[in-house]
Amino acid sequence: MVEARDGLALWLDRLLLRSTLGAPEQAAIMALPGLLETARPNRDFVRLGERVDRACLIVSGLAGRFSQTSDGQRQTTALHIPGDMANLHSLVLPQSASALRSLGDAVLYRVPHQEIRRLTATFPALAEAFWRDCTVDAAVLSQWALINGRLSARVRVAHLVAELCCRFAIGGCVDGMSLPWALTQIQLAGATGLTAVHVNRMLRQLREDGALEIRDKKLRVIGWERLCAVAHFNPRYLHLHKAL
Amino acid sequence: MVEARDGLALWLDRLLLRSTLGAPEQAAIMALPGLLETARPNRDFVRLGERVDRACLIVSGLAGRFSQTSDGQRQTTALHIPGDMANLHSLVLPQSASALRSLGDAVLYRVPHQEIRRLTATFPALAEAFWRDCTVDAAVLSQWALINGRLSARVRVAHLVAELCCRFAIGGCVDGMSLPWALTQIQLAGATGLTAVHVNRMLRQLREDGALEIRDKKLRVIGWERLCAVAHFNPRYLHLHKAL
DNA sequence: CGGGACTTTGAGGTAGATCAAAAAGTGTGG
DNA sequence: CCACACTTTTTGATCTACCTCAAAGTCCCG
Predict the structure, then answer these.
(1) Is the confidence at residue B244, as pLDDT, over 70?
(2) Residue pair B174/B192 in contact by the 8 Å Cβ criterion
(3) Number of residue pairs across A and B with CB atoms under 8 Å?
(4) Among A136, A170, A234, B214, which is most buried by a count of CB atoms within 10 Å?
(5) What are phi and psi of B53, to 5 degrees?
(6) pTM here?
């Protein structure tokens, strides 16, 4: 059974990677009230343009953030894994500029803005930690813009896979490691700005290169070094450690 | 003669578009100490990976933010106009994830983090206003990711031009309007993820379509409606007005 | 067992890259 | 004011990475 506490604990860990928080701040995070909710698979749980009054913590499963043109074309602008407060920025900009949707089965914990504001008002260190995490989010998007704007399809797919490896297994990615993998090639295409057909071919190449293998909803990293080399991957932009 | 006060006033106007600030907060902004500096044209004034202890306000001219691959390829992730505090986010993430460079002649006002922190500590409303403006920045980048990831070269160029029109002439863009235009086609290519050659062809098309004209470092909007239509442009994402 | 979503492979088309070179503009020093 | 070097703009010709369309194969769930 999934519980809100699990999600909050993951989120707190994430915050502590980048910010120093005292015991009262940590306790306040863990005590945040909210609503646990099972998202219907592949459905928007925050719609474009909607005025939002609760932030969504991903407790389990995956979620995507999407920008959309007037004629309905979508581009993924972020992938969120458990422990991500997917739209924390809605606290300061409640008019949602992008949609959030579950990718497969997902469980959310919806925390009212007003509860988060209570925390930022009491603990300035939390306000800063929140702002910092939003900034990391933007840094990741910058990296996506770079990779998707300048590099080949093969690099894009490899880079996205490498990023997710690092975010799931915070710190150490190694050869032979295996991760649960719920993303379809269609979803991968949405995030890399490619077509699903071409993603398929690129994944085959990466398999033939001895970099990785996806089977049975599992990703197996065959050659982490090779994958990083193909992807031009350097995890610094993820800010998974406190700055020196 | 350009003065720091001009830049600070522009920035304050920008903040007031999106946040409500009292007289003391406004006075505190206008009193921010810093160093006025003439940037050498087309030079990085914040380098990649550098540890930053001052934020850069663009007082005059243009600046670009760039992400960069290990082998030196660059992608523009933001264009900054006078009144933009280009790297306000460095306050919470001082390890610079992107480079900042002047595009042509530019004048900067460098404000020490420590002075800005004095403000956020005293006035929580300013901390929130700053966070909000960084969030808008990220929203603009999302839009770029969408446009550059999914739409044709013609749309990309048109969209960028339309965005800059709106940001320069906050609120009203009209037919026949003319703006100072300092960007080269090479710089346009850097922001749209195209080559300069192709940008040139797209600009010619837009001219032939009766949408715009660039001559003598001036941009003339011939048909604003037409430009917006070609660009799929809807200025909402710029958050140039307070949310309803 | 049947239907829907996803994956895989093939064949052919195209938007935009690349390469090349001329023309126009811009700044510098004599 | 002109001569120069350098950058930017413009145009042409060719090439290719990725898209599009199509169809078969696979997986999964009711």
Answers:
(1) no
(2) no
(3) 147
(4) A136
(5) -125, 10
(6) 0.95
